[in-house]
Amino acid sequence: MVIKHRGDYDVVICGGGTAGALAAISAGRNGARTLLIERGPFLGGVSVMGFYPHSFFAHSGKKAVGGLPQEIIDELIKREGSLGHLRYEGGHLYTHTPVDCEILKVVLMQMVMDAGVDIMLNSLIKDIGMQGNRINSIVIQTKADTFSASAKTFIDCTGDGDIGYMAGAPFNKGRQDGKMQPVSLMMRLTNVDLIKLANEVPTQTPVLWADKPRSKVKTPVYFRGVLTPWEETPEYQQLFTDKNHQMFCLAPWSTEATVNTSRLVGVDGTDYNDVTNAEAKSRIQIFNVYEFLKKYIPGFAESNMVGAHFLGVRETRRFVGDYELTEEDINAGRKFDDNIGLAAYPLDMHDPEGGNVTFTPIGGDGSYGIPFRTLLPQKVENLLIAGRCLSTTHKALASVRSIAACMVMGQATGLAATMAAKENITVKEVDVKKLQSSLESQGVILY
Ligand SMILES: Cc1cc2nc3c(=O)[nH]c(=O)nc-3n(C[C@H](O)[C@H](O)[C@H](O)COP(=O)(O)OP(=O)(O)OC[C@H]3O[C@@H](n4cnc5c(N)ncnc54)[C@H](O)[C@@H]3O)c2cc1C
Predict the structure, then answer these.
(1) pLDDT digits (tens, 9 = 90+) for 251-270
(2) Ligand 1 mean position to 444 CA, how many Å?
(3) Domain assignments of the chain as residue spans, ordered by start
(4) The domain made up of 3-178+315-441 is a member of CATH 3.50.50.60
(5) 313: which of 49, 96, 262, 393 lies 20 to 30 Å off by Cα?
(6) What is the pTM assigned to this prediction?
(7) Please, are residues 24 and 16 in contact by the beta-carbon 8 Å criterion?
């Protein structure tokens, strides 16, 4: 096999999802020769399945997330791709930030390109080369060719932590019995009568309504319904494993909803057979959910299914870093000397056994710090981690896996990796005070 050398870089970012896209923009803008490798055909990963990047504000009303994530929202607003931060009175979040997932893909790609990053799409990282405790190079498989690339510093933004895993960094998975949060497949429906839905389906939290482009009336933008009245139907009993099953509808447009209500338990997102089975089963499952919605649920009778993404995996590997973020930290709204940014999304636990979803608010002022130490895996000198594979407990991950927090980690690691590469030091030797002051000058909120 001939391996073509793609180049020698300061920073290589592995995975172009939520954290990876921002890490690339950050590294590129801070002057690093940067390569971003993504196995799919677009950037954004799980965040471009139709979700909202929740919690730019803490429940105290204080802004918690600025910097690059805010710049992305500003760019989206310019392109009619976001309604901005909408106050959610009486809800479990202070604000919601509706975004259109297709326009988010465009904005991320544009910003990464503008930062001068070399981008490889449809490219899977399948191996690494080590020298002692350092990663020397990675092997990238495309349809046509196999490439290698080397760098001074690498960032693992693969969600599953593929790079740290290949490098031998220690990790945990799931709770003590190994069970992880369920996986879900999202579907996008058009021709939904959102007003009827919000008026006729019971909810446990208020409906958030908004003015949307080209609509003369306000329509729901966030709706969290419960399907309790339909529990006795045979379809419900076949499709849902819990009582009062919840249906999350995210609707940045006036007649469209991204519906998050499917769920499969017992799936390990790093196991090929599990993932294949789950992709197949959940695709059939969402079609059956769609048929159920059309038949029973007000507002969906005339709807059409126009899109369904790939399997959404909430949890797999969590590296053992220099610090492990815990639920106690989140419950206390704790801040750290080495905060690289803040997160403000409550603990959003989807029961690994298939029960319901619970939201637990953050204590203190409603935000907590993400310590730099949670992004430093053990045993590998030139690797940073960002996104949902950071060092955290199973419970704390239920909060810090949120999109805004992953974006914050992306921005911070992009800069830290650049500093390490330029100064020829290990990632643990990065001067945290200098990192924090540069992040602050780039709009990151640290308090
Ligand atoms: C069903 C579901 C609903 C959610 N809802 C919300 C919500 O409403 N709001 C919210 O804030 N958060 C939500 N989340 C959480 C949030 O979306 C994710 O935790 C977050 O986006 C993860 O970001 P990441 O960068 O760590 O991983 P990802 O976004 O998954 O990015 C990883 C990227 O790496 C690529 N990759 C992986 N392995 C390789 C490899 N070997 N080589 C090359 N590329 C590779 C992948 O293709 C992917 O693009 C939800 C998650 C799920 C699953």
Answers:
(1) 999 999 999 999 999 999 99
(2) 22
(3) 3-178+315-441, 187-308
(4) yes
(5) 96
(6) 0.97
(7) yes
